[in-house]
Amino acid sequence: METETTPAMPAVERGHVTAIGGSHASIRLTRPAGALDDFTVGKLLEITAANAYAVAVVTAVAEERGTGIVSAEVDLLGEIVRGRNGPFFQRGITEYPAVGSPAAMLTREHLRLIYDIAGARTINIGTLSQDSSIGAYINVDEMLQKHFAVLGTTGVGKSTGVALLLREVLRARPKQRIFLIDPHNEYGACFGDKAEVLSPTNLRLPYWLFNFEEMVDVIFRARPGVEEEVEILSQVIAEAKNLFAEERDANRPRLRKTETEGAGYTVDTPVPYRMTDLLALIDKRMGKLENRSQFPKYHRLITRIETVSNDPRYRFMFQNANVGGDTMVEVLSGLFNLTDSRKPVTVMQLAGFPGEVVDSVVSVLCRMAFEFGLWGGGLLPLLIVCEEAHRYAPSDRGVGFGPTRKSVSRIAKEGRKYGVFIGLVTQRPAELDATIISQCSTLFAMRMANDLDQSIVRSAVSDAAAGLLAFVPALGVREVFAFGEGVALPTRIRFGEVPKEFLPRAATVAQFANDAGLLDTTVIAAVVDRWRAASMSRRRRAIDPADDETIGFESPVLRRPREVGSEDRPIPPSERPASAPPRMALADTPRPQPNDALARWPGR
Questions:
Q1: E-assigned strand segments in 414-536
Q2: What is the pLDDT of residue 537?
Q3: Residue 47 and residue 20: Cα distance in Å, rounded?
Q4: So what's the pLDDT on residue 541?
Q5: DSSP class of residue 208?
Q6: Predicted confidence band at 523 (pLDDT cuts at 50, 70, 90)?
Q7: How far apart are CA 511 and CA 60, in angstroms?
């Protein structure tokens, strides 16, 4: 018969219990104040009970006035209990200490019993502040599958902590796919050759993948849509999608009328359509109007669509806008590296995108991640890490873009069922939707001085140790309090080092400053050129008039106005004018007449 073992008694008694409640206790120390230099807030104690040790954290220390006696307030966190195979730690208190029970600093043996849990399911992210010889281990499955958040003001090492966490996740879970939303272009070098870095220059995110709300946000440049124009747009997008499908599947067997009644693609179905078809449908509706007073709203809608699709900053959306082809499989594979095990990380750099479209892009990416997990049944675990999360899911529902908040919130609430998880990173928890942050079961709280930020985090921490947040304003650089399911016990941790070459840093063109901190005028000129190029109208390269090839996004080719459903084709050289007039920027183009919209639409 196995015998039960009892944990060894504390080595050095420091005091005894004078009062105890449901989750708190008071300790009177028996040593003089001068001999208690190591007995400070944040330290862990063990209090002897009948058959266990209660583990507590010191939250306040004070000297009783005029007596020289020091007392402490502690929060009860868990207990070390006896078991058949030796002592083990568990959260919560099943056996409370009595008044007068001895208290001591938690021994190294018991610290290791609680925290030194190295294994296949854990990652090492640093060391304990209580004892730097003991590693700080996180249960990687609990952290990922129940979501996590890293919170802290700027300059405290938050980005470095995120890089460390993700690098350790990749080490422990090589098949884990990570999609990192990087608004400041900091993480491009953090993962070496394991990451695919996407930016406006190499991203291909076709406009037809945007749902209706996202497309309205793009066309109206992040301003509220005009109701009449939005109504027209909702009808013609669905028509354009069905028209493209009919042309593509012209040879498929026709179904009986009863089977097709009410069928077809909706405005939100992620299938291709051509911009020429969209404009042709608007123009066709405009041509059938009997009341000319209705013309302006059609003109304005056409102009808005042309303006945004001709803007070189939106090339990632509208390149090859009139070339048919369903590239959704390629887009998904490229975004989330689903077919390339060598690069499990995608860093989505947002700094180069037009400010008015960033929210829509984030909405599309998060929505696609969730939908792929939903319809794929969680084929491959996908972690979405959202830096500056308060920008995309703000607590104030009167600001921000609703679909983006909805996309992030849906992952937080339902994503774990489909293998899609989220990691939130923010310096302003008070500005982040409280419903979303409450879904994160593991929190890493770094230094935060704002009382409102601390109160939001406190409300999200279910542990009895929420009082530890009172110490958050005093944390040093790279120090963090970890709470929740991923850690054995809420505790103060110091993040480990990240190799210098993998540290997060803002992407810049180059470091040109000399020792005097001055720049050469040629460098300033280069910056100005890049600055201007970001908002220039489309540049046209010189091409041979006889050359009938469309060269990417840069060189438009003259195209014949097309009827809806007809083939969009370049005008043969023999039919072109002797000298084509130079192309004007859209802002200089005369206002269109009712039936010339197609003639002005640029082919690609």
A1: 420-426, 442-445, 479-484, 491-495
A2: 52
A3: 11
A4: 35
A5: G
A6: confident
A7: 48
In the chain, where are the structural domains located?
13-115, 122-204+327-493, 205-326+518-604
Q: Which residues contact 429 (CB under 8 A, 6 or more apart)?
A: 149, 151, 390, 437, 448, 453, 456, 457
Render the burial of 312-331: b for 16+ CB within 10 Å, e for the rest.
bbbbbbbbbbbeeeebeeeb
Q: What is the dihedral of CA 208, 209, 212, 216, to 10 degrees?
A: -70
- Cα 48 to Cα 82: distance, rounded to the nearest angstrom: 12
Q: Give CA angle at 139 (117, 432), nearest 5°.
A: 140
Query: Assign residue 52 a region: left if phi > 0, alpha if psi is -120 to 50, beta otherwise?
Result: beta
Neighbouring CB atoms inside 10 A of 189's CB total 16
pLDDT score at 533: 67
Q: Return the structure tokens found at 429.
A: 């928890």
- Name the CA radius of gyration of the chain, rounded: 31
DSSP 448-464: ---HHHHHHHHHH--SG
In angstroms, the CA 157 to CA 478 distance is 5
Both structure tokens of 524: 């300033």
Helix (H, G, I), strand (E, B) or coil at 15: strand
What's residue 117's pLDDT? 81
Ramachandran quadrant class, 597 (left: phi over 0; alpha: psi -120 to 50; beta: rest): alpha
Asked whether the beta carbons of 22 and 37 are under 8 A apart, the reply is: no
Residue 459 confidence (pLDDT): 81
**Segment holding 296, helix H or strand E:** helix 295-310
Alpha-carbon gap, residue 604 to 227, rounded angstroms: 30
Of 88, 101, 104, 92, whose CA–CA distance to 22 is shortest? 92
| Bridge partner residues of 136 (DSSP) | 126
> Does the pLDDT value for residue 195 go beyond 90?
yes
Judge whether residue 213 has pLDDT over 70: yes
Q: Do residues 31 and 40 touch, judged by C-beta distance below 8 A?
A: no
The residue among 350, 366, 349 whose CA lies nearest residue 358 is 350
Query: Architecture of 122-204+327-493 per CATH?
Result: 3-Layer(aba) Sandwich (3.40)
Alpha carbon distances (Å) from 449 to 156, 395, 430 = 12, 19, 12
> Is 350:362 a contact under the CB 8 Å cutoff?
yes
In whole angstroms, give the CA distance from residue 31 to residue 26: 15
How far CA 405 is from CA of 239, 257, 475, in Å, comes to 29, 41, 31
302 neighbors 236 (Cβ within 8 angstroms): no
**Distance (Å, whole) CA 259 – CA 40:** 76
Q: How far apart (Å, rounded) are the C-alpha atoms in residues 412 and 496?
A: 28
Quickly state the pLDDT bin for 11 (edges 50, 70, 90). Answer: low
Cβ neighbours for 157, distance < 8 A, ≥ 6 positions apart: 446, 477, 478, 495
In whole angstroms, give the CA distance from residue 350 to residue 332: 18
Q: Which residue has the higher pLDDT, 582 or 250?
A: 250
Q: What pLDDT is recorded for position 80?
A: 92
User: How confident is the model over 128-142, as pLDDT tens digits?
Assistant: 887 888 899 999 999
Q: Are 210 and 403 in contact (CB under 8 A)?
A: no
